[in-house]
User: What shape does this take?
Amino acid sequence: MNDPRPTVGMVGAGQLARMCWQAGIGLDIDLRVLAARANDAAARVTPDPVIGDPDDPNALAAFARCCDVLTLDHELVDTATLLDLEAAGHAVRPGGETLRFAQDKAFQRRHFAAAGLPVPEHAVVTTRGDAEAFARDHGWSVVLKRPRGGYDGRGVWQVDDRDGLGRAWEQAAASAGDVLVEQGVGLVAEVAVLLARRPGGQQVAAPLVETVQRDGMLRELVVPARVPADVHPEAMDLAARVADLVAVVGVCAVELFWDGSGLLVNEIAVRPHNCGHWTIDGAATSQFENHLRAVLVWPLGAMHATHPAVCSVNVVGHDDSSWPQAHLAAALGTSDVHVHLYGKQPRTGRTLGHVTATADTIDAARERAHAAAERLMAPGTTPDPAT
Ligand code: ADP
Assistant: This one.
């Protein structure tokens, strides 16, 4: 008899693949990763990782042949190669057309605006003079963005005046090509909708999450998001429209700006996302399980919160030698927290894990999650005394 267990192939082997693998165990899904390096977070835990270059079309094609469906841990995959694989009959979810939106912020802005979705005022420019003209027309501050390849705020410069624009322009335009310039939004909160979508359009969304950034990097999640009640359904509606527009299959994160009076779409990710990490311990079905269910065209699980309040805090490296693992016993002493470490080598500014706390109130969840995360981020490599 044929083995009925599906093989899901994930391109990339970071923490997202690692947590997908974990979610797939209960469903006996065979998850294989295409890892750039043998010590990548998921390559260290999944059986038979394939070590290969995701930029090599031959490596990708060979990997696709040993999987029932191909999916992504990151978005740095050539869309033309994915489209070729789809044309050759491979199931690629999300597909190349969808990925194009996530890879290029200028393409995304243009198509979202054309579809009538609210986005920040923006222009795609090739000269500093045009960026200055945009600022004159729209007022300071403005934000310069490299359309492709940025993450964690790298490739984004918020500038308040002409001098600042000059300095940012040098960096933004350094790698040549277009620069996206947009109006600086007076942010009251950043929020996100994390949803899973199946081929054909069925969607399940998690409650609105507030995403707290520091230095352009996501540091904390709060559920439910602390914005007025009527903002929640409006955000859900916008996200559902975005997901249909890009025809995503799998998990999609729709990041939104709230300026106190309205919502604007910032950007999307078409894979499991940091803003959904709280769902592992705080939702009926985690983003990772629903991603697998969606790409396998299985029924999706509900994603409502299982507690009145949930908070996740990222564990971020502050030097190259302090391992959060050394402080696990101390962190686990905080009640009602769940620790997730990604098995990555510590480095300043690198996300090494996250901690989730569930509670009856947001204040209590935040207090516990921060306390545990602080303990994990304590300096030093030796275990804390007295734990
Ligand atoms: P990345 O892809 O690196 O996450 P984003 O485009 O999401 O970059 O921008 C990173 C952060 O910069 C956002 O989370 C937000 O805090 C800030 N930001 C980006 N665009 C704007 C804008 N138009 N107005 C105000 N803040 C912005």
